[in-house]
Amino acid sequence: MYQAIVFLPLLGAILAGIIALAGARARHSGYIDMHGHDDYGAAHAHGGGASHGDAAVAHAAHDDHAAHEPAAAGSRAAELITSTLLVVPAILSWIAFFQVGFGGQEARIPVLPWIHSGDLVIDWSLRIDSLTAVMLVVVTTVSALVHIYSIGYMHEDPNRPRFMGYLSLFTFAMLMLVTADDLVQLFFGWEGVGLASYLLIGFWYQRPSANAAAIKAFVVNRIGDFGFGLGIFAVFAATGAVNFDTVFSQAPALVGKTMHFLSWEIDTLTVICLLLFMGAMGKSAQFLLHTWLPDAMEGPTPVSALIHAATMVTAGVFMVARLSPLFELSPTALTVVTFIGATTAFFAATVGLVQNDIKRVIAYSTCSQLGYMFVAMGVGAYSVGMFHLFTHAFFKALLFLGSGSVIMAMHHEQDMRHMGGLKNRIPVTYWMMVIGTLALTGFPLTAGYFSKDAIIEAAYAGKNSMAIYGFVMTVVAAGLTSFYSWRLIFMTFHGEPHDREHYEHAHESPLVVTVPLGILAVGALAAGFVFKDYFAGHGVEHFFREALKFADGNHVLEEMHHTPALIAWMPTVMMVLGFLVAYQFYIRRPDIPVEFARQHDVLYRFLLNKWYFDEIYDVLIVRPSLWLGRLFWKGGDGRVIDGLGPDGVSARVIDITRSAMRLQTGYLYHYAFAMLIGLAAFVTWFTFAGQH
Amino acid sequence: MTAAFPFPAIVPAVPELMLAIGGVILLMVGAFRGDRVAPVINGLAIALLILVAITVLYLPPGTLTTFGGSFVVDDFARFLKVVALLSSAVAIAMSTDYFAAVNHEPFEYPVLIILSTLGMLMLVSANDLIALYLGLELMSLALYVLAAFHRVSARSSEAGLKYFVLGALSSGMYLYGASLVYGFTGTVSFDGIAHATLQTSGIGLIFGLVFIFAGFCFKISAVPFHMWTPDVYEGAPTPVTAFFSAAPKVAGMGMVMRGAIDAFPNVVDQWQQILVFVAIASMALGSFAAIGQRNFKRLMAYSAIAHMGFALVGLAAGTEEGVRGVLVYITIYVTMTLGAFAAITAMRRDGRIVEDVADLAGLARTSPAMAFWLAMLMFSLAGIPPLAGFFAKFYVFLAAIKAGLYTLAVIGVLTSVVGAYYYLAVVKVMYFDEPAKPLEKMAYELKIVLTVAAALNILFFLYPGPLLESAALAAKSLFE
């Protein structure tokens, strides 16, 4: 069964890939107008909001997959194959979820021997425990729904087989990641999702901005992966193994030991955990390494929902949970995790307040929510973090797919300032988005209410030195979340339509789009209530058993239930406050935000430009790197290596050739002269030197 | 009672006699019948050359000497004679189509080749300085005439005149050197010279050696006595150039080897220094200067200079193995150069003769077979394994390394890298450039020469035994 779950998506990816290749070959002769996308994007870049520095950037990010080309042959077949091959694993995953979580049927399923080299033994096997089961459910369910949704969303795109193939490939890689039984396999899946993410962000490769975003995502992730790689090496150096079981069993013996790292003697476990966490920061877009995530919205919206909200970006959280036996032994690392998570939660929420692109708002929201999860991890409440991961997958995928539906209705308009009043035109989408928003903001009894409040309580109950910082930040962020979420709803669905033409043509999406929305909405409403006990209550021990490790002194799950009532109600109060402010700003007095932004221009610009992170990185890292690269390219490779090497040699050869040819004058007396000179040279040589 | 000058044994010289008499008869036939019989004389000349080659093989075995020791037939001489005879025969075969195309089919052409070949046979058998000079002049005089053969063409006449004047100069150098050597040793016989230099070798003798080697180097167009080569190659009619590039080089190499090994075995150090310098200069100049050439014949001239340099690397080693390497080299070189010239001779477009490399543009598409065979020959000339040209270089470099001439071997390898450029450039023009107007169809005899030459080069590595063994035997006989 587990093999089926993992490998059916791979099969789907391969089949779709074959169809895509065959289609591309068949079409190659009649290749027409690959630049259609560019033109479309340019036509849409109307000048509204020219006062904002990044308005043009935001506009360029439209989902514009207008069909100038006929669809590839076999598109329908590819869609059906890949979707079917994901619906089946999704169903199986739910069965597995109950079997493993409640039936206790954990498993290790060997697949292949992989690397055997000296002490390094890596076998490819599937590790199935409750943690995996949760991830399986999240990944396959969301992926299956996104596949189905894509049939509707991408129906105008000519390259659907390729798209579906990439989606399935991503799903396979993600499943490899969550079923990993050792660090190297985890890394394999890790890189696999990175690759799929790169391919999907750059799916519309005719668009320069999409290519740039894809490269950015890849490069930024490379930084994190560098740390991850070093972490794996450090683990192997410290324990001589990369297999989880072995590593975990040896970990307690490492406490208090130090290792030599960058000429310092540092606590071994802290080094390992921090290096591994660096990988998590990259993949989960945490503060400092977050810049790629908003740009990744260049990809098609289903991709954003699947990869950049529900699954891949949570890989970092999953990793920390998986490695809880290590992190639990390093309080320093946990403190750092808390700090980074809390900072991200707050930072991303502030940026989300002022964004105008509907997808970017949700992207920053995702970033912020990931910060919440890391706060939970940092204070030792791993199951709570996983709980939020679980519920977040539902409502964030719902929000993304809902926004995709809006974008479709608006003919690939993504700027919220051009929307408005859509409530009546697309009521189904509207209600789905409202449900998603309720869940995200933590409206009582929705999924987010249970998981997010649990995180905030856990942060309050947490023991490490950053816990209280985490608590404050997450509470503030809860208010901000509520504000920007409702701002999104109000700007999009309420008020007066700002773009009459689009408004008139707006239409509700087809069933393949709305049905997945409905299913996710059910999850967004019910997932918290149903599973709260197993993730955040008294069932944790029974549900997760050995999958998560809580140190002896870690009673955070117990203590979080004894927080004062005032603290427990704090997030709800913040949620209501956020809602009221948003209502005031965008329904009752729409002129306030404009006025407010004008009065606090500096702050507004600071937020709108995302704390100027891209600009700072550009100056500090990108430009010096390019300068250095150009120096090596032009100076090092071009001038020194080529110049003294191939180019220089061939130039000298030409010179010699030229002078050799000049000797051949055609004059007889020159020739005779040369002969006599040669003769004279020999005679001279032997007269003075050659004679022994 | 025995006479003071007994009648010499003529058996060792039978091939030369046959060639001399046959040549005179053919000349008579031509003189009385006129140019009409040129095709017949061509055929007969080829038959005669092949017949003589067979006769050479069927001479009594072992080393034969006659004419008072000035004429020697050993395995070394047999080997080179057969190669020279066969390449002369091929050169005649390659000429018919060309001369038919220029409406000038002279019967003197095959006769001159026969006379020149006679000179070569005498040259490789010569065992004293006088006999050597006789062979050298007999060969060269015919070559001077052949170079200027297309007498209505200014270029051809110029080529002949240049060759003649410089050739006379080189003959003078040789004779001056010979007289010096005679003056210091009191003999012209190789054995006598070797004997006389056993004890002493004064500076005067070395001067003589230098002058003699200058004369040798002129014939094999080694730097700095090569200057005539590009002009003569370009100016002479193409079949003549083809002939120049093959048989005279064989004989010239034979002459150098016998002179160096047999006459001056006790001054090895000295002639080794000369040869090392000449080899390096030839390889370098041949490789570098060829890069700038557009005319294919001129390119082949520099190629010849470079290849003579490579061959001399083997001789510079001064060992039996080195001599074997040179023999293998020169034989393989003859097949390569004749094949390449078969293609060059066939280069005609709209009845006009074209000679530039650029005229081969896109040949792979207009006549793929010719392009393929020529490309193979170019690879072989460049020395790319597993073609024969690679093994040719391999054996001479091997000999040089065993003799401790590392610098020479390394320079040889480096210059062959430079040389590879212009051979590959020809292939590139044929295969990757836009096709020019197609060339005329190749005559069948040229096609055969090209195909056989290329096939020999491609397949040599499968069955190298016969050539390597006979070359080894020949080299051995030279050292006995």
Quick overview of this protein structure:
The complex is a heterodimer of chains A (692) and B (480). Chain A is mainly alpha-helical.
Which spans of chain A of ≥5 residues are poorly predicted at pLDDT below 50?
A: 30-67
Order of helices and strands of chain B: HHEEHHHHHHHHHHHEEHHHHHH
The number of helices of chain B is: 19
Q: In percent, how helical is the residue content of chain B?
A: over 70%
Number of helices of chain A: 30
Specify the biggest β-sheet of chain A.
2 strands, antiparallel
Between the first and last Cα atoms of chain B, what is the distance in angstroms?
33 Å
Shape of chain A: globular
Largest interface: A-B, 28 and 35 residues
Structural class of chain A: mainly alpha
**Rg of chain A (CA only):** 30 Å
Spans where pLDDT lies below 50 across 5 or more residues of chain B = none
Strand order of the largest sheet of chain A: 1-2
What does this structure look like?
- In chain A, 72% of the residues lie in helices and 4% in strands.
- Chain A is built from 30 helices and four strands.
- Chain A has a two-stranded antiparallel ribbon with strand order 1-2. In chain A, strands 3-4 form a two-stranded antiparallel sheet.
- In chain A, a hairpin with a 2-residue loop joins strand 1 and strand 2.
- The longest helix of chain A is centred in the N-terminal third of the chain and has 32 residues.
- The radius of gyration of chain A is 30 Å and the shape is globular.
- About 5% of the residues of chain A have low confidence.
- Chain B has a domain of 217 residues.
- Chain B is globular and about 65 Å long.
- The two termini of chain B are 33 Å apart.
- The model of chain B has no long low-confidence stretch (mean pLDDT 92).
- Classes of the chains: A mainly alpha (692), B mainly alpha (480).
- Chains A and B meet through helix 29 and helix 30 of A and helix 6, helix 8, helix 9 and helix 11 of B.
